[in-house]
Amino acid sequence: MQFVFETFLEQLSESVDETDFRDAMARAAAAFDLVKFAYLCLPPRAPGKPRLISNYPPRWTAHYLSNHYHVIDPVIARAQGGQCPFLWGLHYSRTGLSEFEQKLFDEAAAFGIRCGLTIPILDKRGNVAAMSFAADGLNPALLRVTERYQEAFRFMATCFHICVRRKLSADRVVNGVQLTPREYECLEWAAQGKSARDIASIVGIRRRTASFHLENARKKLGLRTRMQAVAQFSAARTGLG
User: How many C-alpha atoms does 98 have within 13 Å on its Cβ side?
Assistant: First the structure.
């Protein structure tokens, strides 16, 4: 268990795009014999688009997003209303569904998504998200996770959400300047007092590459020195810039 968590957290810290995050969660879930997962973060305001990171069949996720199913999905609706993990599908939460909700479940079932465990996520900024682990049926692995590892998966889901929010969201904008994931990450470590050598070791890149990203960030911000870039970044993060 500890090895799974350590590996998962290391992969999250090294992730810079959706593919990295998807692979990190898929690998962790597979250690618990769970095959399918989906992370959905709702837009903070209308008419924003939800962020979906998943290893569900691409045809299904594209269909789900294009039809704005997150608006009518009863699983997401329940996740918005509480913080306790819950089972859904099959004999769970299928009573009282509207015609559209039933259609959604039936369409998902065609892709092997018939039931699952969903973990609601509500962070301190008021962002709402959900991490779901799905299966074609209530297999022993899914029930075992629900009974034995529920708290562990709540922790993993929260860590995943926080890392995605920090690295992939529009929060990478500093004083109106959009930074790349790597530029933002390197500047973030520099703001914590880390040198280019330290950052290279932490992130898993060369020192020269870390310096390259820091310099790019400095130039984009229109500043003369790296220290000024770090100071501006820190001020923006604390709301003082």
Answer: 5
Q: Six-digit token pair at 211?
A: 């310096």
Q: How far apart are the first and last CA of the chain?
A: 42
> pTM, whole model, 2 decimals?
0.72
Amino acid identity of residue 61, one-letter, is T
Contact criterion met (CB below 8 Å) for 191 and 237: yes
Q: Which two tokens stand for residue 170?
A: 């529009």
What residues pair up with 41 in beta bridges, in sequence order? Answer: 51, 129
Please give the Cα distance from 74 to 96 (Å, whole number). Answer: 10
Q: What CA–CA distance (Å, rounded) separates 15 from 4? A: 16
C-beta neighbour count of 192 within 10 angstroms: 11
* H helix or E strand, kind and range, residue 104: helix 99-109
Tell me the mean pLDDT per 10 residues along the chain, length 241. Answer: 90 90 96 94 79 97 96 94 87 72 93 95 85 89 83 93 81 80 88 93 90 95 94 76 47
The span from the CA of 16 to the CA of 8, in Å, is 14
Element housing 128 (H / E): strand 128-135
HSE value, Cβ hemisphere, 13 Å, CA-based, for 29: 26
- Rounded CA-CA distance 29/31 in Å is 5
